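Hi, here's the filled form for the chain we discussed.

Project: internal
Contact: R.S.
Residues: 114
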Amino acid sequence: QVQLVESGGGLVQPGGSLTLSCVPDGDISMFHTMAWYRQAPGSKRELVARISQSGTTYGDSVKGRFTISRDTPKNTFYLQMEILEAEDTGVYYCNAVTWRKEYWGQGTQVTVSS
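And the returned structure, exactly as it came back:
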């Protein structure tokens, strides 16, 4: 069983920035797709960004503000978030997929508030 460990969440003011990190306890090269999802209170979990061999995909509400990346030597993937808005508040989950299974992290809280 592979575990994914997120970090980097916290409280930030509107317009601010945060970078989330996700570290798997296995070799990152085993994953063909990695993604970030988020879930706001009372809402369904939604895709924020995805990176795969085909390229990157972003949710409409974060295009131009968020960037997903993968650093294989550091065995880490990231979500760089800029120009944060109150609507970005929620629990952010990292997700990683091998050819056989899908894995989820425990989630990290991001709160955007003044």
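Let me know if anything looks off before we file it.
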